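Write out this protein's structure.
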Amino acid sequence: MQRAAQAWHLRVLGRTWAEIAEAVGFANDANAIRAVRRFVGKLPEPDVDETRTVWRERMEHLWGIAARDAEAGRPGAIRAGVAVAQRASALDGLDAPARYEITPAESQLEQLVQQMLARSGHVQVEEPEVLELEVLAVDDAGERG
């Protein structure tokens, strides 16, 4: 089981199956794949979940290196750590969603409202007729002024 764990670790680091087989002592890459399949519990195929898991572990590895380098005062370590943190955050959806505010022109807004009403099955709203009235001032005695 220790060789399989070591093989998985090397895969996370980006090694090919042939390189892993040679480094860990498997007869060939197929044996390395089988050992990792048993270790991980499924065939390491390049599907979305597995790829995310691999990259998550790679970023954990890189984060550790960046943190040690930052503590040692190495140039560029903080920038590298920030880059790793940003990618890890994006991978797991931790960033707040981007928010966009769209302000359509009045004609576009009217068109959108009409489309929404049509799709919902509601009747289209007609613009009400505006009446113009004359305002007359009346004083307290009831006389027009």
